[in-house]
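Supplementary Methods, section 5.1.

A reviewer requested that the exact input to the structure prediction be made available. We therefore reproduce it here, unchanged from the version used in the analyses.
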Amino acid sequence: MLNKKLPKKKKKGFALTEVLLSVAVIVIIGIAAYPLYQNSRTSSTVEQMANEITQISTNLQKVYNGQGNYNGASLDVLKNTGLLPDTLKISVVDTGIRQ
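The structure derived from this sequence is encoded token-by-token as follows.
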């Protein structure tokens, strides 16, 4: 009777080392993915800027075709007539130059 084996209890849940290993793997994946995320954000911003510059160029060409010159194509006029993209953030610097 002493040699009789008792049934083993099955463990429920995870061991501490398993949880720590899982967290470490997730952190490593996050660290590896972060630069890729930053690069995609940067390239998206550059692409948006390029699109805005193209739109401004096209609109300035329309002004030139209509007038034969660029007179009156100031930032204020372009902004008020809707020829500048809505997403464009403009900070006008006063250069002190008057026409």
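The chain has a mean pLDDT of 79. These observations are discussed further in the main text.
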